[in-house]
Amino acid sequence: MKSSRMWPILLMLGAACFMSMAACTWAASQGSAHPGGNSAASSDDDANAPYKTFDAVPAITMPPLLLDMSSTSVVVEWMTDSPGDERVRYGDGRLDHEIVPQQDGLIPVGAMHRVVIDGLLPGHTYQYQVSSRRVVALKPYWPDMGRTVQSPVYSFTTFDPAKKSASFAVITDTHEDVDRIRGLMDMIHREPVDFVAHDGDGVNYGVSENQLKDRFLEPMSTGLQGRVPLVYARGNHEYRGEFARSLGGYLHAQDDKYFFTRDEGPLHLVVVDTGEDKPDDTNVYAGLNDLRDYRSEEFAWLRKTFTQENRTTTAPFTVVLGHQPDWGWLDGHGEQWTQLANRAHIDLFIAGHEHVFQYIRPGERGNDFPILVVGQDQVARVQVSDTELKVVVTDRAGKLADEFSLKRKGK
Ligand SMILES: [Fe+2]
Q: Which of 145, 168, 301, 306 has minimal CB crowding within 10 Å?
């Protein structure tokens, strides 16, 4: 029996049929969406009738990328060739936990998938697997669905501030050069690292999701093999282009910011966004940039981080990771950032942007700390213990560019 509240809908459909053949087709297609021939309008009594399932399996076009690892959580991102839902199964030894995210009560459907796993234990190794079920047509009732694709099972290890040592590799300014990324990743995998940092300018400017995937994220995620986390610092080129305003959905840290801190063993890592390299009022931005306010907000955060986070003084080494070695355009106030870092007794600033190697000694620019500028075709490998931080910079030909070590300071 039809419920009385369906009558207005039936009347509306009837009117729509009278006015438009397209609406009649819509109504008919609802009726064909499940065996038994019930129309959408008569459906409430038969809500458990099956929806259509096509034999269409999504392809995973970007394997899982582990972004912004912490000691208790991590972001997992992957992409599929067509719209689908998203699910992560994970656990310690077996996949006995499952996350299906929802946003305002709806499970996200799209080609880009981003899921945060939290509630993890520090220094623990977990297995995980991602999956997406194809959504063929997102109809109001009985959406047309497809099959599910599952990734292989991968594993990751959460950060652990209590660890005795930490290791990471830094690359930068890959600028959409896929061969460069693959070559640098091959170098990195010759010795294991806890994480890889990309110091910005992964793209020349933001164009589209496919461009971001093909020229940056897919080669990075393939290179990281689903097990090595990525720490990303935003470059000035990531401010540009029609897709720049959407990049946060792919590259933000867990709290939806581009500046954050992380701790791994003796390392306290402070990731900053060094903004653009030209003034807001330069005509190239046509008045569409407001770095002045954004960087003030970031400065307040950095001051709070340096003065209130215990790890700034208790961690054996504090390393700042940021794209531009001079903190970017700050309307002449870059010196304040240097003074803030001096007062926090940071041990090292690792930058990119210049495309060639530089080592800026303490004192050269009012800095009490060395500034390492990693070149475009180089890997900086950093090993941190309780007493020493060692850096080895190698270029893609395998030639040593520089090597130095820093002793722990009294703070
Ligand atoms: Fe740059």
A: 301
What stretch(es) of the chain map to CATH 3.60.21.10?
166-407
At 184, list the tokens: 């640098």
Residue 82 has which token pair? 């067509």
> pTM of the prediction?
0.89
Q: What is the mean pLDDT of residues 144-168?
A: 98
* Gap from CA of 204 to ligand 1 centroid (Å): 9
Distance 177 CA to ligand 1 centre (A): 14
Q: Fold for domain 60-157? A: Immunoglobulin-like (2.60.40)
Sequence-separated (6 or more) residues with CB below 8 Å from residue 247:
206, 212, 238
Give residue-wise pLDDT tens across range 27-73.
Answer: 333 333 343 334 444 456 688 999 999 999 999 999 999 999 999 99
Separation of CA 263 and ligand 1 centre (Å): 26
Cα 325 to Cα 318: distance, rounded to the nearest angstrom: 16
Q: How far is the CA of 203 from the centre of ligand 1 (A)?
A: 10
Question: For residues 400 and 25, what is the distance between their CA atoms, to the nearest angstrom?
Answer: 68
Supply the mean pLDDT for the chain.
91
Tell the CATH topology of 166-407: Purple Acid Phosphatase; chain A, domain 2 (3.60.21)
Instruction: Quickly count: other Cβ atoms within 10 Å of residue 384's Cβ.
Output: 30
Mean pLDDT of 250-260: 97
